[in-house]
Each structure stands twice: as C-alpha cells, then as structure tokens.
C-alpha cells in the first residue's frame, strides 16, 4: 500500500497571509484607523472641564464618575489609535485581532462620550439599561430567525410574529390578569404564525422571502382589523394589560453597576438570557441541533441517513415561533403595556438584520442586537444632553452605524447552505 | 435510533446475510422511462457491478432500492419476501447502505458529526457525545486502514478523504447490502486500491456490494457478477473475465475504441509560459509554490497529482479566478497576470472547470444558453447590448449535433441532462471558438466510456489544430491516453516533468512526493498493484 | 469524425414530442385559473372577517337562537354590500378603472425593481428607500427648477431615476466590494432615507413658502405627467408599462440581462465564464433603484401630491408582494400590480360604503398572495383545476443566491 | 348568543335632517389617539346633536387623499372636514371645483383664502405655555422633560410653548427649572422618529427620567403613550401631561399619572364649523383656537385636583388672562398665522 499518497492538504506555515485575508485586514484596519482618527480629532476639540458619568440609574448625587474630559479623551483616542495601527501593521498575532477591535471600539466610544459629556452628566448605567430594553425583543426575534434559518427556512416574518405576539399578550393579560397566560398566549400565536410560514414554505414551496413579507402584511392587517373592530370598542377591558414586574435576583442583583442593569429585570428578560443559552446549546450540543443544522446545510444528505427533513424543519420553525411570539409580548406586557396598531414599528426587520449580522449564530445575533440597541439608546441620550450633532443625523445614526459595521467589519457572511431552499424529494 | 455500534464481528455477519431481488422495477420521469422493468438479483456476499452509460438509469435504480425514489411498478424482495422501502430510514432499517454518487456530507460539519448524523451517539437526553463518536470513527478508520481525522471539518479535507468518510458512514449503518454509486470517480489510483481492499474485507464478512463505476479495469478487478444497463433496460450480464472492449460494447451498444488514435505531437511555439507562480489560498496555505511550466502549441501537457496538491489552484490561477501572490503567466508572449478572467478567455484560453455543476454551467439555463455562456457578448450572438436569440439557437442546434449532446430539446435546462452530457455541453462551448490554450480539469470525471472516447478524440483534435492543451487529471488512464508530457505536482510544487510513457508506478510515486530519480528506483524495487488497475 | 455520431444506435433515445404541454389548457390559462381561484378563496376568508366584524351581524347573533335567519341574512347582506362596493370601486366604470390604474402605477414600477434584483439573486427590500430618494430629487427638480414644458418633465423624471439608482447602486456597490448583505443594507437604508426626507422637509429648500409644515410645494405644471381626462390617471402609467417592457427586454434580449440572470442562477459558473459578479450586482441594483425611483416620480409628478414624509406610502413594501405574485417576471408583475391597484381602489370604496376598515384590504391582499403562491393548496380545495407544469418554484431560492 | 330579538328601533330624534357631514382622515387614521380621533369626535358630536348624517373616509396613505376627497364629493356631502395639513392640496382642489360644498380643514389653511374653505387652526402654544408653567411648579427635581414623535410644527408648537412656560416660571419665581428634550432657541431636541413605536417612546421617556425629569410631556401620538407608561412604571415618582385630548378620557388607564392635558379643541371647532354650515352661517374666516375662545386650554386636573395648590391654579388663570390680553407674547414660530 502506498500510504504516503493519502496525505491531507499540505500545510505551509500559516504565517503567510492569503490575499483574501489581506484585503480584509486592510479594509477592517482602514476603518479602524478612520475611527481612531475621528476619536483623536474629537479629543482635541473636547472643551475643558469634567465629564461626569452616572453609575447608578436615577442617582444624580452619589455614584458619579468624574473624569477630566479632554485628558481622558486623548488618552483613550491614542490607545485606540495604537490598537488600530497594531492591527493594520500586523504587530500582534492575528488571533488577537478581535481584542484589538474591541479595544478600539471601547476607546472610540469612550473618547466620544468624553467629548459629548464634557461639562455634563452622561447616565452611563442608563445607557446599558436602555440598550437592554431595545435589544431584548430584537434578541428574541433574532433567535427565532436563527432557529428557522439554521433549519433552512428563511424567516422574514419576525415582524409579523412580533405583532401577533404583542396583540394577544395584551388582550390575554387584560382579560385574565395573568402574566403567565399572556406570555403563553403570545407564544402560541407566534407558533400559529410560524405554522403558516412552515406550511407555505415547506409544504407549498413558496418563496420564503416574499412569503415572510406577505405574512408581515397579513399580521398587520389581521391585528389592525381586530383592533379596529373589537378592541377599540372596549379598551378598558381588552387593552389595559399589567406590565410584568421586575424581579431582582438575590446576590447577583447586588453586584455594583451591572447588578441592577442585568439582574433586576422582568421574567421576560431572564427568559431571553436563558433562550440565548438554550438555543446555543440545543443547536450545537444536541442531537436535535445537529439534525436541524444538517437539514439547513444539506437536506438531501440528512435524508439519506434517515432524517425526516420536513419534520425537523417544522419543529425548528415552530419552536422559533415560540421565541418570536415572546419577543412580541415584550412590546406590550413585557414593557409598554397596551397594544396599538403596528406598534412593533419595524423592529422585526431589525431583528432580521441582527441575525444576519450575527452570522446565524445565537450569540452573534445577540451581540448584533445589543450593538443596535446600544446605538439607538446612545442616540436618544445624546439628543437629551444636547451635542453639536444635529438631532436629525442622530436619528439616522444607528442605521448608518449598522451599515458601516456590516460593510466594514462583518463583510461577507455565509448563510446556511440550503437556507431558503425547499426540499423536494426525489 | 440512539447510540451506535460498530459493524458486527464477522460471526454476527454470517447470520446477517441478505438475498436481495429486484423484480420488474420501473420508474419514469415525465415521458422518460429511466428504468424499464429491471430485474436484478444480488446474492449474499457477492460484489455485483452495474455498468451503463451516463443516464442509463443506474443511480435511479439504486435510489429506488434506497428509498429515495419510489418505483412506478415492480417490487423489491428481501430474502424472498416482498418489502416496501418508502424512505432511506426504511432502507437503513433493513440493512441497506449506500454511498451516493454525489457526496452526501455536510461540509461545515466535522467528519465525526457527519458520520454520526442520523444515529447520533448521545449521553442521554439527546446531548451529543462527541468523544464517543470520535473514538468510534478512529476505531473504524484504523480497522480499514483509512486515515481520517474525526475532528477535521469535511470542507477542509480532500475529496479522496471525503469519499472515505462516506464509506465509513455507510459501514456504521451495519449494512448487509452496500451500494457504492461511482465511489471511485474522485479517487486516486492508490486510493482505489485501498477501497477495493476494503470491499474485499466486507465481502469476506458476508456483506453484498452493488458497485457502480465507469472504469472497466475496476470492474474486472473486483466483480463477481456484472449487469449492464442501457437506456433503462438490462441488456445483459457478463463475467469478470470479459475483456474491456466487450464490456464497453455491451454498455454502449457499439464497438468502442478504448485507445485514442493519436499521432505524435508536433509541438510549435511556446504558447503558455508560467514563471514562479505562487498562490496563497484563503487559509493562508501556499497552494501553488513557485511553479514554472511551459506548454507549446500542438502539445498536451498533463498535470498529474493527488487531489489537493495545487493542480486545481494552478488551473484557476491561469484563468484569473483566484489571485496570485507572485509570478507571471503569459500567453503567446503576452503577459496576462493582471488580467481579468474575461480578458483571459478573450485572449484565447478555453477552460473546462473541475466541478462542472458548480463552475461549468448554469443549471437552470437552457442548453442553448449554456452553450454561449462565455460567448454571448460577441457577434454573432450579441452586438452592443442586444442578444441575438436566433443565432444562439442555431449555434445550439449545430453543437448538439456535433458533440452528440443527448437532450430532448435545446431549451431544456442543463440540470436535466445526465452528467456526461453536461460535460459535453461545457466542452462544446469551450471548443467552439478559436483557442490558443485549452485548460481542462478532470475533463471526463464521471463520464461513461463511450463519451470519454468522444471527448478524448475532440481534445486530441484540438491539439492537432495547434492549440496548446493543459489537462489536469488524477486519472492515470486519462493521462496515458492524452498526454504528450506529464508534469507531476506535489504540495504545490512541480516535482518533475516526464515523458508520457513513464511507467505508472513511477508516476504514482512522484505523485506521493518522490523526485523523478527516487521514483524510478523505488518503482522497480516495489511494484504496486497500481500497474494492474 | 467522431465515431459516435455515425453509429445509428447512438441517436438520442426515443424522443417522443414532449407531450405534456400539448394536452389541456395552455400554461397561462392554467395560471390564470389558479389565480382566479386564489382570489375567490381569499374573498371567502375576507367574508368571514367581514361577518365577524359587522355590527348588524353582531347584533343579530346576540339573539341567534331566537331568529337564526336574521344572523344569516345580516351576514349575507354585510358581505354582499362590502364586495359590491369593492368591485364597483375597482372596476365599476371609467373613473374607478382609472383610479385602479393610478394606484397600480407605482406598484408596477416598484414590483419590477424587486423582480429584477431577484433575478440577479438579490433580495431588494429597499425599494421603499430608493423610491423616497427618487421622489425627493424628482420633486425638487419639479418645484425648484423652472424649465420649459416637456424638458422640465424629462429632467424631473431623470432626477428621480438617478436618485433611486444611487440609493440602489449603493447597496450593489457595498455588496460587490465588501460582501455586505443586501438585506441588512437595504433595511437600514430605508430608515436612513425616511429620516433624510423628514429632515429635508424642515429645510427652507424643501418647505412650501409661507408654511411651517413639513410639506413641499406641488411641482410645476410643466413637470407633471400629463393626465388623461378628468381623473387621476396620468402618463406615468404608460411609463410603467414601458418600464415592464424594458425589463423584459433587458432580461431576455440583452447581453446585460443574460449576465444578470446567469449571476442570479449560479454566480460561480458566471465568474468562471468571465462575468463580473460584482458588476452584475451593481448594475442590477442601479437599474432596480432606478425603477423604484421611477415609482417615486409617479408619486410626486403624477397625482398632485406634494413631497411629505408619507410620500412613499407603503409602495416599497407592497412591491415585494407584487413581485411574488408576478413570479419575478415583468408581465406577471404588471398583472399583479394591476390587481393590487384595483384592490386598493376598491378597498377605499368599500370602507366608504360599508365602513369596512382598510385593514381588511390589507388582509385580502396578503391572503390572495398566499393562495396564488401555493397553487397546490388552491388545487386541494378546487379539485377541478388542472395541474400546472414547471411553475411554482420559479422563485424558490435562498439567501445564497 | 341567546336572547330575544329587540323591537325595531326608531331613531331617537325622529327623521334625520337632509344634511350630510363628511370627514377624511390623514394617514394616521381615525384611531390615532390624536387629531384625527379628536376631530372625528367633533363630527360624531355634530351628528348626534344636530341630527344629521355622516360619512367618513380613512386614508391609509398619502396616495388616498385625492381619491377619498373625490369619493366624498361624490357622496353628495354638504360639508367635508379634512384633517391635517397633508390634505390641504386635495381640499383646495375639491373646493375650487365644487363651490357649493363647504369645506373645513383642521390644522392648516389655504395659501389664499377660498370662499368655501374654513381653516381651523389651534394655538396650542398658549395652553402648552400654561402646562410648562404648571410642570415647572409641580416638579420636585427641578427638571421637566418633553419629547416628540417627528420634528414637525404640529408637534414642536407644543414643545415650544412648554419650554416658554417653564422659562416664564423661572423668571417670575427666580428658579432654575430645566427643560430636557427641547431647546426652543435652537429648535432641536428629543424625537423618537415615528409615532408608532410605543416601546421606543417609553424608553425615550425613561432616558429623560434618568436625567432627573419628574414630569414628562410627550408629544408623539401612540409613541407618546409609552411616556405615560414610563411615568406609570415609576410608581408615583414621575407624572405626565398629555396633549391633544383629555388623557383621562382617551387613555384612561394612565389617568393616575396625568396632572392635566393640553387640549386642542378640534372636536368643538369641527362641530361648530358643521353647525354653522347646517344653520347656513358658514363663512371662510379662519378659526384659531386660543385660550381666549376656548379652542385650546388645559383639561381638568382629575386625580391631581387636590395636589395642585390653589395658589398655582390662580397663577395659571392669571397667565391665561395675560396671554389673552397680550401681556405675555409667545415666540413659537409654529403658531398658526391669522390669514
Ligand atoms: N429527478 C429526475 N427528474 C427527471 N429525470 C431524471 C431524474 N433523475 C434521473 N433522471 C433521468 O433518468 C435517466 C437516468 O438517470 P440516472 O441518474 O439513473 O443515470 P445513471 O445511469 O446513474 O447515469 P450516470 O452514469 O451519469 O450517473 C437520465 O436520463 C436522467 O436524466
Ligand atoms: N429535475 C430534473 N429534471 C431532469 N433530470 C434531472 C433532474 N434532476 C436530476 N436529473 C438528472 O438525473 C440524473 C441523476 O442525477 P445525479 O445527480 O444522481 O447524477 P448525474 O448528474 O448523472 O451525475 P454525474 O454527473 O456525476 O454523472 C442526472 O442525470 C441528472 O441530470
Ligand atoms: Mg448515476
Ligand atoms: Mg454520473
């Protein structure tokens, strides 16, 4: 036997940089450099005085972090610049590249905040609190998308699932007074929407992108119609849900700074944390997850080893409906109380963007949702403390930031191979 | 299904023999009868070869046996009992395993994940037990002398190794009947040797094997029984002792000339000149390492090598499909290094890519459209921005005739043609314009003997018209049939350029990295079975 | 010279004429039947909603057991009147028809923008933003520039096309250069476009003189699409049809379209055949954006509407639905656009006459599309429908192109 | 579902007058918890009180205005009420073409007066001024907050008046109560970007609260309800002032946190306009709702009646008198100009 011929691919020293990597490094590095320089420029125009950061939400006297605005900004900007240059010139092993990016990101935001908050108070704790508020439904929606799309079914209907979830949660909470019943009802209607998605895409092979859009229209129409015809007439009984109460987790909730932000939340937020962990675990550590990913990547291969492709897809899409329905309930019982028409206002589409930006990974999707939540909350807070940036521009900022992040940092993403492709036997 | 175990010990297997009979199986696709009352008996422990042209209906038959397709009529009998197999899980449950013609592996999964898929090893509660799976794969891999790393991602391993993964996967399913649909199309001669050894082991332990291949040498080496299918019907059976010519004639229905008529080359000017070509792939590995090559007008240079040693990248770099890190490529004295793929095609390079379905044609486009996929801009097919559909159709009609492309209509999507015919579409297109250089990767992979004969003739004809031809192939047969000179690649380097009549053993050793001199010596001392297959 | 061509046996095997297409109805008739049945089914769903939402029915059902026929007749009346109004509002006379065509006009162009991108393997969720930018530029040229008639209109249309093309082209460019996923970019740019519009409407350049409201002047008469007769129907409708013809020509009879379709169907093979995938993405998005921009011009140059933050209505999103209904083909898109336009016009009449909320029209549209997209489902209800061949999964493609 | 069939009803007030009052909404729809809804209430009141018939057309998008207007004309309406500045063009065109139909338009006015169009404007800056003063006086923290949906004059006019009212409080009382979320000099402030996203509105209000605001003045339609929700969630620490309608009626679930509401008397104005047409007294003079004519004003304090000191109440009355007399001049550019 000539064993020698069965060498696997020859491995040359990995220090050589492939052309694709090089392009990526230059692109990402260039963008990092641009941000570092902007940070530096801001640092130079930061006027004197101290920037004050509020560390406990609502506490305006104690727990304040006061730093010299310009000095800190310059320090951070220089540090960021160093990180950008180190990345661009490959001065650090590339496996630490992520850290450099994180350093730059933190330094840039830090310098930016010093500039914006010079002579003012910036509620730092509230920044994170608001981030979480914006991100929670996005995370749940994006997780729902991850589950569907890992199984090969594109889910653009998240927005529609949000709407029906929000709608039913509000009504059930108002009529029964039970939060558990409301969440359950939201999950159930989320599943019903998911069932439509599943049946039409898996059984009737309808193009899934357009199907999703149609389902959003459908959900908007149905909730709007029912709202017009029934809810409006009896708002007092049908549309006055109680909002979930925050529950402080003992010990964890007492951790300074992060405790109140992360561990004094409603059950729905804790469910969201759990959902991220559970979905990650289910997808990557269990038999079910392996099969879900298999049918999303190569359904025929899964079929040939005896896996029922359509059944696996149905289960994934329906479970995703649970998550999206719960995400929808955030808009009413989870946070904002009563229902109004089209109140999810495009958040489902942002969740979709988050899951793509997060490369179809639950944790990535969560990070992307948090990124978007952070940007939205920052823009709102900056409008209050009044910066030289015009409000109109600030409103666009989260969306522009997402485009920049996607084009500059995320780049080409690869969907599950069979995502959106119906499986037809034979 | 939970947990998994190794295939039973030989004594278990004695009891596990299966007698399989297919009676009158019929299946049509639309108006096409792909299988027409096919009868087939597979005795326990026999290796049964299925032969037939591309599109003869072999895969269709096997897919029915495996539950992927349902027969229109006819029945399947296991140990004399009529059974219905409505899905692959039925087939698996009854002890039928299959290695499919096209890889049924999930590229982003590890080897172990692929192997356990469908019968996962778990720690209870559905949680995967990867350690156990890894151990299992290692054990099987050792038992059959395969060398696979259970933790490697499938997309990162060479196709030859992927094929082994497929085989291990089928083995873990404890098959009593194992169907192998063209498993050798992507294997190197040495790998084929190993596979044949494994098949013998399995047969000895009582497993029956249905073996589909287009390589008559393999059939003769291993078959106990040979059944030939033509146009959906069984046209005869043969003994392994039949000559290759007899088998080919039975398959194709006419005499086939297995040797290409080839006059000695009359090399002219250097057409392609490659100097110091280096390609770094996406993972940062040096795929092509400082390669120098020349191909002259009117000669065929074959690049031989085990899959994954840089030949594919070499071909892609010549076409500008992947960026080069260093070196120059010039055609007819003109430097092409910085040019786009389109400019290179227009400069007179014809290209037949290795993976035709992926890179060679647009499956949903019609035959006619695919025949002008890289010609549509130029007259007579297009001028300015307008497309001349009449000319495109005319061209298609004549190419289909000339290249004997078997299709019901030039308007059908190419995806509905059989593999061999798809390949003819690609070749017909590339040869329908004046070329200075033809680069063809694996031009006859998975193609039946009749079509191979035809394609080879066309390639030699192209050479005789003064085109420089560069063939990348892992088939020593093909190299022997076509090449005027052979360049052997190993780990991205050209380890030697040798004459076409270099003995196979020597080529094989060079493909494993030996220099020309070492190969010469070693080949004479330890001849391998390579020579016989 | 090849031996195989000489051998008689190697002729292509029994080649009966592809017989299936010859039997029964032609393909378009089958599709039409299925679409009609789908509409009927959707109307049934709508009828159920009308009945449960109708006040008279609610009242009658409160004493259902006393006088069940009342409930029934109330239901029949409610549905009958609503649908009568729907039909009358959509096609009951010259003016309703003109109104339906007017409503259809931007939907057709928007639908084409989505279809064209689809055929190139791109999901253009950004028709809304492209339309807004097109409308901004067209309106600005229309009211701020003062040019001779005809020229003014042409320049304004051109401005709209360019606006949309830039906004779409940006998506193509980012996708080609950085790989940024077009779905994310288009969603985000939709928001950017609307905020941009909101901001512009607070500037003196765009604000109507003498007003503080975020509303622009109406464009000069010289920049308006000529209208036909006394209704709102205008030349933009003809342009929409021409645009459909152009897209058909582009896709089927031009070298560029060949390239776009090839890239859409198999980018790898297209690259290997010397096409530039990035270029195709950019071209497709520029043209798609231009088409959406054309829809934008129809909003501000055609129907007496000034530029406001609601100028795009939901045309950009409805366009996606229209594109599905039209199966990604220009002719189908035109027909789907007409249907949606008719439903919009009829829906307005329905709410007017019978107080049926407009949300019902929304539901009807969604349900019609669902049924049309799933012929198998319609067929399982209406068993008599003949089978369609080779259709259905035309657009069924995934993220990866 | 069971029960007996009610006897045939006869219309309470006998046969209806042969007069039809009609209304076209803008794209917000009649249930926008804002001006469409209030205006529609005016129509309903008129129908009830005057015993006339009605027709209404909701617009889903800007595309629908001309169509709905034409449809109303075709319905032989005697008077057509259009709601919002976006309907101006469609209204004017219909009015010119149909001189014998009366038109009235809420929150807008034709550039040149048209004989059969009566514009209805509301100087809500005046009542918002009172609200600002009230808020400044009621604030414990010395900070009050406001936010809008989209930065357009019908929204910013409230925010302007509010800010001016707070400033007035500061000057008269030598205090330094801060307004968060709106700088009327720079005309820049806090907006959610739309009128639908209630959760976003709530978060926005929460951001104001974090900055110390204890009275919130949301001017954002349904997204503004989020601000009320934020106040409600603060458990008594934060209160709010609603706009357009009396919040204790239109959003009763939040009454417990509403100090008052800045009413924009569109219902009354619409009803009056219809009545004038019924009685053949219709004119095209612009109506501007002010504190003086009661077209705008503060709603009752409801649950806060006991919490608002009597002294403050009388100060508010004094302010009202000063505004009416012209002693206090408002700056807001968004105030409707008398034509
Ligand atoms: N799903 C299908 N739909 C339509 N036609 C099909 C389908 N599958 C197979 N065919 C046709 O049936 C015939 C037999 O195909 P089959 O794959 O069985 O051939 P084969 O003998 O395996 O050929 P090859 O050697 O190329 O693999 C071909 O003409 C093929 O085009
Ligand atoms: N939808 C289809 N319509 C018509 N023929 C089809 C269709 N799908 C597949 N086929 C044909 O069915 C046959 C079976 O497909 P399969 O992928 O197994 O093998 P193949 O194309 O023959 O393989 P190879 O090219 O490796 O020889 C092929 O000939 C293919 O062209
Ligand atoms: Mg086959
Ligand atoms: Mg084959």
Automatic annotation (TrEMBL), chain A:
Pfam families: BPD_transp_2. It is a multi-pass membrane protein. Keywords: Cell membrane, Membrane, Transmembrane, Transmembrane helix. It comes from the Bacteria. The keyword Repeat does not apply. Signal peptide: none annotated. The keyword Transmembrane helix applies. It is found in: Cell membrane. The chain crosses the membrane at residues 28-47, 67-89, 96-118, 130-148, 153-173, 179-202, 209-227, 267-284, 316-337, 349-372, 393-413. This is ABC transporter permease.
From TrEMBL, chain B:
PROSITE patterns: ABC_TRANSPORTER_1 (PS00211), ABC_TRANSPORTER_2 (PS50893). It comes from Kribbella deserti. This is ABC transporter ATP-binding protein. Residues 20-256, 272-516 form the ABC transporter domain. InterPro entries: AAA+_ATPase, ABC_carbohydrate_import_ATPase, ABC_transporter-like_ATP-bd, ABC_transporter-like_CS, P-loop_NTPase. One of its GO terms (molecular function) is ATP binding. Keywords: ATP-binding, Nucleotide-binding.
UniProtKB/TrEMBL annotation, chain C:
It is found in: Cell membrane. It is a multi-pass membrane protein. Residues 7-23 have a biased composition (Low complexity). Pfam families: BPD_transp_2. The keyword Cell membrane applies. Its main location: membrane. Keywords: Cell membrane, Membrane, Transmembrane, Transmembrane helix. CDD domains: TM_PBP1_transp_TpRbsC_like. Residues 1-23 are annotated as: Disordered. The keyword Cell membrane applies. The chain crosses the membrane at residues 28-51, 63-80, 100-118, 130-147, 153-174, 183-201, 233-251, 280-301, 333-352, 358-378. This is ABC transporter permease.
């Amino acid at each position: 036997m000539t064993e020698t011929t069965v060498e696997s691919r020859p491995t040359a020293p990995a220090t050589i940089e492939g052309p694709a990597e090089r392009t990526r490094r230059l692109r990402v590095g260039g963008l990092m450099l641009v941000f570092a320089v902007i940070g530096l420029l801001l640092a130079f125009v930061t006027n004197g005085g101290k920037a004050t950061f509020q560390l406990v939400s609502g506490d305006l006297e104690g727990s304040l972090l006061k730093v010299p605005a310009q000095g800190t900004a310059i320090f951070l900007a220089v540090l960021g610049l160093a990180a950008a240059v180190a990345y661009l010139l490959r001065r650090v092993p590339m496996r630490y590249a992520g850290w450099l990016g994180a350093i730059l990101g933190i330094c840039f935001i830090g310098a930016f905040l010093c500039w914006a908050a010079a002579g003012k108070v910036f509620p730092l704790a509230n920044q994170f609190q608001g981030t979480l508020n914006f991100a929670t439904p996005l995370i749940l929606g994006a997780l729902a998308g991850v589950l569907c799309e890992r199984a090969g079914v594109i889910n653009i209907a998240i927005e529609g699932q949000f709407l029906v979830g929000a709608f039913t949660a509000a009504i059930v909470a108002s009529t029964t007074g039970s939060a558990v019943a409301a969440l359950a009802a939201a999950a159930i209607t989320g599943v019903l929407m998911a069932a439509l998605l599943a049946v039409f895409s898996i059984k009737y092979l309808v193009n899934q992108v357009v199907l999703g859009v149609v389902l959003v229209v459908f959900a908007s129409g149905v909730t709007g119609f029912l709202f017009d015809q029934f809810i409006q007439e009896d708002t007092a009984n049908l549309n006055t849900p109680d909002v979930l109460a925050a529950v402080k987790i003992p010990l964890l909730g007492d951790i300074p700074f992060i405790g109140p932000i992360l561990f004094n939340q409603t059950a729905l937020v804790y469910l969201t944390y759990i959902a991220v962990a559970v979905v990650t675990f289910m997808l990557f550590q269990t038999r079910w997850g392996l099969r879900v990913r298999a049918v999303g990547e190569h359904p025929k291969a899964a079929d040939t080893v005896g896996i029922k492709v359509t059944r696996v897809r149905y289960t994934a899409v329906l479970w995703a409906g649970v998550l999206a329905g719960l995400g929808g309930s955030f808009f009413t019982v989870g946070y904002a109380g009563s229902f109004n028409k089209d109140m999810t206002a495009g958040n489902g589409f942002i969740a979709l963007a988050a899951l793509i930006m997060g490369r179809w990974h639950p944790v990535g999707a969560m990070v992307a949702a948090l990124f978007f939540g952070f940007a939205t909350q920052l823009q709102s807070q900056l409008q209050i403390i009044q910066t030289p940036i015009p409000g109109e521009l600030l409103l666009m900022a989260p969306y522009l930031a997402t485009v920049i992040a996607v084009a500059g940092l995320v780049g080409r993403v690869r969907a599950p191979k069979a995502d959106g492709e119906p499986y037809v036997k034979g | 299904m939970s947990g998994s175990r190794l295939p039973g010990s030989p004594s278990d297997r004695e009891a596990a023999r299966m007698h399989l009979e297919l009676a009158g199986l019929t299946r049509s696709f639309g108006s096409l009868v792909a299988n027409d009352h096919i009868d087939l008996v597979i005795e326990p422990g026999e290796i049964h070869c299925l032969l037939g042209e591309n599109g003869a209906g072999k895969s269709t038959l096997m897919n029915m046996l495996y539950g992927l397709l349902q027969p229109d009529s006819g029945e399947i009998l296991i140990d004399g009992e009529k059974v219905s197999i409505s899905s692959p899980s039925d087939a698996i449950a009854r002890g039928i395993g299959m290695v499919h013609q096209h890889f049924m592996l999930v590229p982003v999964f590890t080897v172990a994940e692929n192997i356990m898929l469908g019968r996962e090893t778990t720690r209870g509660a559905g949680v995967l037990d990867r350690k156990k799976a890894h151990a299992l794969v290692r054990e099987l891999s050792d038992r059959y002398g395969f060398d696979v790393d259970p933790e490697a991602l499938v997309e990162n391993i060479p196709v030859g190794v992927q094929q082994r993964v497929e085989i291990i996967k089928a083995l873990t399913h404890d098959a009593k009947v194992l169907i192998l649909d063209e498993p050798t199309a992507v294997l190197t001669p040495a790998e084929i040797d190993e596979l044949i050894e494994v098949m013998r082991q399995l047969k000895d332990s009582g497993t029956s094997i249905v073996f589909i291949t287009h390589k008559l040498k393999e059939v003769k080496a291993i078959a106990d029984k040979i059944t030939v299918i033509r146009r959906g019907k069984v046209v005869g059976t043969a003994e392994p002792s039949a000559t290759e010519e007899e088998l080919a004639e039975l398959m194709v229905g006419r005499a086939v000339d297995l040797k290409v008529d080839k006059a000695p080359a009359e090399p002219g000017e250097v057409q392609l000149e490659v100097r110091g070509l280096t390609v770094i792939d996406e993972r940062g590995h040096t795929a092509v390492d400082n390669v120098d090559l020349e191909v002259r007008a009117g000669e065929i240079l074959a690049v031989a090598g085990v899959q994954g040693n840089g030949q594919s990248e070499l071909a892609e770099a010549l076409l500008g499909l992947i960026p080069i890190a260093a070196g120059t490529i010039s055609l007819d004295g003109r430097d092409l290094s910085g040019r786009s793929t389109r400019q290179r095609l227009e400069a007179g390079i014809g290209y037949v890519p290795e993976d035709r379905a992926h890179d060679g044609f647009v499956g949903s486009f019609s035959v006619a459209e695919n025949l002008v996929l890289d010609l549509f801009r130029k007259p007579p097919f297009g001028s300015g921005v307008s497309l001349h559909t009449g000319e495109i159709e005319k061209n298609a009609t004549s190419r289909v005739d000339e290249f004997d492309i078997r299709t019901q209509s030039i308007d059908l999507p190419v995806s509905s043609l059989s593999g061999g015919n798809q390949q003819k579409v690609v070749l017909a297109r590339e040869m329908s314009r004046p070329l200075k250089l033809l680069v063809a990767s694996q031009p006859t992979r998975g193609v039946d003997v009749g079509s191979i004969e035809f394609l080879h003739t066309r390639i030699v004809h192209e050479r005789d018209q003064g085109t420089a031809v560069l063939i990348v192939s892992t088939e020593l047969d093909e190299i022997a049939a076509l090449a005027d000179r052979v360049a052997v690649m190993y780990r991205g380097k050209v380890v030697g350029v040798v004459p076409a009549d270099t003995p196979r053993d020597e080529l094989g050793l060079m493909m494993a990295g030996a220099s020309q001199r070492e190969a010469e010596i070693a080949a004479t001392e330890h001849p391998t079975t390579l020579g016989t297959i | 010279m090849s031996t195989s061509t000489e051998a008689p046996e190697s002729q292509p095997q029994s080649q009966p004429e592809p017989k299936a297409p010859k039997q029964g109805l032609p393909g378009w008739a089958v599709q039409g039947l299925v679409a009609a049945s789908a509409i009927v089914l959707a109307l049934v769903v709508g009828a159920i909603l009308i009945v449960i939402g109708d006040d008279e029915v609610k009242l009658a059902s409160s004493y259902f057991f006393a006088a069940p026929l009342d409930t029934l007749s109330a239901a029949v009346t409610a549905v009958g009147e609503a649908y009568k109004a729907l039909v009358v509002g959509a096609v009951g006379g010259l003016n309703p028809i003109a109104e339906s065509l007017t409503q259809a006009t931007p939907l057709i162009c928007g639908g084409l923008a989505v279809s064209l991108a689809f055929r190139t393997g791109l999901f253009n969720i950004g028709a809304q933003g492209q339309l807004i930018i097109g409308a901004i530029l067209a309106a600005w040229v229309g009211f701020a520039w003062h040019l001779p008639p005809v020229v003014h209109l042409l320049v304004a249309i051109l401005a709209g096309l360019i606006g949309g093309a830039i906004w779409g082209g940006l998506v193509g460019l980012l996708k080609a250069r950085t790989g940024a996923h077009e779905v994310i970019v288009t969603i985000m740019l939709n928001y950017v476009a609307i905020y941009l519009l909101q901001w512009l409407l607070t500037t003196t350049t765009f604000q109507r003189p003498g007003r503080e409201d975020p509303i622009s002047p109406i464009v000069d008469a010289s920049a308006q699409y000529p209208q036909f007769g006394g209704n709102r129907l205008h030349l933009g409708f003809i342009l929409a049809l021409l645009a459909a013809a152009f897209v058909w020509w582009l896709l089927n009879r031009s070298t560029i379209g060949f390239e776009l379709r090839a890239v859409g169907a198999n980018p790898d093979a297209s690259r290997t055949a010397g096409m530039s995938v990035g270029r195709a993405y950019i071209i497709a998005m520029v043209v798609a954006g231009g088409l959406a921009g054309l829809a934008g011009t129809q909003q501000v140059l055609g129907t007496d509407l000034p530029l406001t933050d609601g100028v795009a209505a939901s045309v950009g999103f409805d366009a996606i639905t229209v594109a599905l209904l039209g199966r990604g083909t220009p002719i189908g898109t035109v027909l789907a656009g007409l249907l949606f336009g008719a439903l919009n016009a009829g829906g307005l009449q329905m709410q007017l006459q019978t107080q049926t909320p407009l949300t019902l029209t929304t539901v009807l549209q969604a349900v019609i599309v669902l049924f049309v997209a799933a012929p198998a489902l319609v067929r399982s209800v209406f068993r008599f429908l003949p089978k369609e061949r080779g259709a259905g999964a035309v657009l069924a493609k995934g993220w990866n192109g | 579902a069971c029960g007996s069939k009610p006897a045939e009803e006869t219309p309470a007030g006998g046969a209806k007058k042969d007069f039809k009052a009609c209304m076209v909404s803008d794209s917000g729809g009649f249930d926008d918890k804002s001006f469409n809804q209030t205006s529609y209430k005016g129509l309903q009141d008129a129908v009830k009180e005057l015993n006339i018939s009605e027709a209404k057309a909701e617009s889903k998008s800007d595309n629908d205005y001309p169509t709905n207007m034409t449809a109303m004309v075709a319905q032989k309406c005697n008077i057509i009420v259009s709601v919002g500045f976006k309907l101006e063009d469609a209204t004017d065109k219909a009015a010119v073409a149909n001189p014998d139909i009366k038109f009235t338009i809420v929150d807008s006015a034709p550039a040149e007066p048209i004989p059969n169009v009566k514009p209805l404007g509301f100087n809500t800056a005046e009542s918002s001024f009172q609200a600002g003063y009230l808020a400044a006086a009621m604030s414990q923290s010395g900070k009050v907050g406001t936010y809008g949906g989209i930065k357009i004059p019908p929204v910013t006019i409230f925010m302007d008046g509010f800010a001016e009212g707070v400033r007035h409080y500061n000057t008269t009382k030598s205090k330094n109560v801060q307004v968060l979320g709106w700088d009327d000099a720079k005309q820049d402030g806090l907006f959610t970007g739309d009128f639908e996203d209630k959760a976003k509105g709530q978060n926005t209000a929460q951001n104001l609260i974090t900055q110390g605001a204890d009275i919130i003045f949301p001017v954002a339609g349904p997204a503004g309800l989020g601000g009320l929700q934020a106040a409600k969630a603060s458990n008594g620490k934060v209160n709010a002032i609603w706009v357009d309608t009396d919040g204790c009626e239109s959003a009763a679930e939040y009454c417990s946190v509403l100090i008052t509401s800045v009413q924009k008397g569109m219902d009354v104005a619409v009803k009056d306009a219809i009545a004038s047409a019924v009685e053949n007294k219709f004119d095209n003079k612009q109506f501007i709702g002010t504190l003086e004519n009661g077209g705008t004003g503060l709603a009752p304090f409801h649950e806060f009646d006991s919490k608002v000191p009597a002294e403050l109440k009388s100060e508010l009355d004094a302010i009202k008198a000063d505004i009416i007399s012209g002693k206090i001049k408002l700056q807001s550019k968004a105030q409707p100009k008398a034509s």
